[in-house]
Structures
1.
Amino acid sequence: MQNRITKLFGIQYPIIQAGMIWCSGWELASAVSNAGGLGVLGAGSMYPDVLKTQIQKCKAATDKPFAVNLPLLYPDIDKHIATILEEKVPIVFTSAGNPAIWTETLKKAGIKVVHVISNEKFAMKAEACGVDAIVAEGFEAGGHNGREETTTLVLIPQICKAVKIPVIAAGGIGTGRTMLAAMVLGAEGVQVGSRFVASEESSAHINFKNKVVDAKDGETQLSLKRLTPVRLIKNKFWEQIAMAEANGASKDELIVILGRARAKKGMFEGDLDEGELEIGQISGSISEIKPAATIVNDMIQEYNVAVTSLEGSRL
């Protein structure tokens, strides 16, 4: 399976593991890369010294390409950039900010740059800034989400039509069939988050992993729209937010409720009541914690079966 994404990253399969905060450490990133996909370290939850250690451990665990996901609003981003340049990270995924600020610096160092977007306007802006590819993330995705609430089914063909660079589809993708659907829509790769949260190598707390496996249809909802929209599993904390939003809470009031380190409390420390549990809608279809390599292999096998099935179903 060769296309512009596999050639750009030097990988076997166009499967990219999302750089999820508190869930994407070196164990997961190296396992996905070793399985033929692209593993990604989630730098948004790491102090600069922690990121450096994670990069070095990932290098020791795989000789395959891997990437770092870098939220551009990170407070000490200049330190993260310095670490990435010093450690010669080959690929960087940027998100949550203006790609014009750091793309040129990264590309001058020979780093491939990919930017995450949720609408056509920012896709075109990212392309104009010189990024090598785009992740188009639909409304179904976990974690921080686009305000437009555009679904993956609608977003992917729209973005593929608007830009010339390769598009990676994200949001609601975690099986071979959904991967094929994204490719049919025009994407050349898929970014998978929630399915890899429930992997053996994920750095998420086992309580959170089990919560994802137990989640049923309709148990996530996009919340905190007045701040930064984020898809959460419904729990005690979510109920508090939902009640405050229903009562017309201001941004400042929501910030007070959110507090500090709420995502760490839920996803990394395993507090299922008071923690922020970020996950995608596809969690309702996840029923088992598996090794990352098994997840990759299952997706590829199902993809190939689905392709064969479609080839025999021409009208």
2.
Amino acid sequence: MKNSNNGPLRVGIFGAGRVAAALTPALATAGHQLTFIASRTPGPAQALAAVLPGCVALPQPTALAAPPPADAYLLAVPDAVVPQLVGAGNWPAGALLAHVAGALPLAVFAARPQVRGGVLYPLQTFSPGRHIDWPTVPLFVEAAEPTAEATLLALARSLSQRVALLDSAQRLHLHLGAVWASNFTNHLLGVAQALLAEAGLPFELLHPLVRETIDKALAAQPSPFGVQTGPAVRHDAPTLAAHEAALTNHPAWQALYGQLTASIQVAAAPAG
């Protein structure tokens, strides 16, 4: 096993989805050797390996039966698959395995005490064709064993300027906040686009409003709650009623509108 503070590492990747597709070229650019990419779907793994010198694509069962030597094995697979890989792999004694999930605890490795478990969690959303500015991406590390922690910290620092240790409980809350800030926001923007499309209006009309909303929320102190605008916070009953009526053909969105309105009003209510 290489010294965690002594240069490039050999890294094996399990998974060829969105996170792996963004992470593998970043690791190669940082000077690490991608030894293999293993996936249940050979096409994406082969496509990733083809542009990484010295990297091979392996079927997942082959890689689990005899993992090629690596200083770290990164499990960039869906959360539910991680325990399966940990339990099924013929891991060398002392192997460093790290998952990249926000909501999955370090304890997922407890069933295999012969390996060193860890976490390398990038706080970012990943989609095909989108450039990731890795030096700005917060990366969070967790490991119980000191040399595993040091290796993962070195790996993280080779990618990002924003690296920190974070335990499983804190990471779960961070991931929960990220879902609200990113995934739910994206869904609401999709609803907005669909409603404009029904009226023959382009989504681009909302772009300046969305940018100002996000910029203002990020600058708000002490909380974005303090810069809330709109009919809900004004308790503008006629407008709220008109909006809900306009959503009659979308009962799920109508219910969501009512729930969000109530939540805004509770958040804006005076204390006491």
